[in-house]
Each structure stands twice: as C-alpha cells, then as structure tokens.
C-alpha cells in the first residue's frame, strides 16, 4: 500500500445533529492539530439548536460542510466519506475530541507500517466538562478475536486507509450502534489493524444523551448479527458475553452515570 505524496491528505468527517453543546470543542480539536494536510468535512443532519452558527464560525477551516436531513449517523458518515479526497480516513463524532498530535502520530505510524490498514490508540473517557473520568480498555485485537467479542478498539482513535474503504465501504446503514465494529471485521479481511499503546489520541465523551449511555442495549445484538453473518456459532464467547452484558447492564449503566455525573455538578 503506497501513499501518493510525502504528507498524505487525511480526511476527517464529523457527523452531527443538534450537538451544539459539544460541537465547538470537537471542531477546535481538529483544526488545532499540528498536521498540515487535513481535509475536514462536517455533515450536519439539519440541526436546529445553534449548531449551524458554530459551523459557520469555523467554515474557513473546513473543506466543506453540509446541513440537511439525513438518515442518521451512519448515513452522515457515508456521505462525508463519499466526498472525501484523503489517502487516510477518520471520523470524529460531534461530542468527542482529539488530543494534540493525534493526526500526525497516526500518519507517521501508517507511513512507517505500509502493510497496516488501520491503526488505533488509547482513549480517555471524559465528561460533559472535558474532565477525564477513566480510560477506554484498548488492546490489540484482530478479526478472529473481534468475532468472539474482544473488540477493544476506541473508534475515536482509528485512522485507516482510503483504499480499503473503497474496497469494503460504505458503512452498513442497517446498524445503529455497531457499524464501526462491522467495518473493522470487513476491513481485517484485507489488512491488519494495529494497536499503538501509550498514545491517547482522542477523548470519548460520556453524557446522558450519548449513544453509549442512552442506547447501549442495541450494541451487542448488532455485534451478534455480524458474528453470525461471518459463520459464528450460537455457542460462542460473544454469545455468552451478550447474556452476561444483559444481566449486568443495569449495574454498568448506573456506574457510568454515577461516574460522569458526579463530576458535572
């Protein structure tokens, strides 16, 4: 896999809908990156909460932006990548943020490891006030382990090659939660994904309206769809983890809410 220039273009897409509370912090975290060759695209779903004023405030830093009704997050990401010109792709949701140096370090890794299709790092959990409240349990995984339920990939930190997206994209719009997991499973048919430990490239925001809190119960059933599509057994680790997750879900969600809620008061 080869890059066409010394500093490959990186396209970052932010899907957003009525996220004015966090959107500006997301935008700033992208435009203040020290990597000089970024194409930043914002796909807004027709927000009515002041998001457009924020986008227009920074439009000189954007390659383009769109605000129109869409079919949700997955549709918005697909739309953004359909407009992308980058050799490396990433998406950053409108409530998450990058840390300084993230893009540069990811590009350096991919350029120095040309057989790698996707790289990811560690991530912090943050609350609504940008306070760190924990760390994502990131670890090295691969296609086989992911299909057993060992994902360990913080989506906010992922950067992958556009040539692979052209082979396997777009995201499956039937997924509400696990479209990234599905993408990684398909991507690793063609190239390895690699964990870069000790680098905290992004911050994963936990808040009341975020999908991780509000719709967590939809994640594991969607992952099981991928598992079974790929020939996985009903008697498998991921199936057991799904039942265990259902059993522990009330406790996990109460703990999450207490964790980030306690620091937002």
CATH class: Alpha Beta
Q: What portion of the residues fall into strands of 2 or more residues? A: 15-25%
Proportion in helices: 25-40%
Q: What is the H/E order?
A: EHEHEHEEHEEHEHHEHHH
Number of helices: 10
| Unreliably modeled segments | none
Measured between the Cα atoms of the first and last residue, the distance is: 49 Å
Q: What is the CA-atom radius of gyration, in angstroms?
A: 18 Å
| Overall pLDDT level | 89
CATH architecture: Alpha-Beta Complex
Determine the CATH topology: Spore Coat Polysaccharide Biosynthesis Protein SpsA, Chain A
Q: Report the sheet with the most strands, covering strand number, pairing sense and barrel closure.
A: 9 strands, mixed
CATH homology superfamily:
Spore Coat Polysaccharide Biosynthesis Protein SpsA, Chain A
Shape field: globular
Class by alpha and beta content: alpha/beta
List the domain count as a whole number. Answer: 1
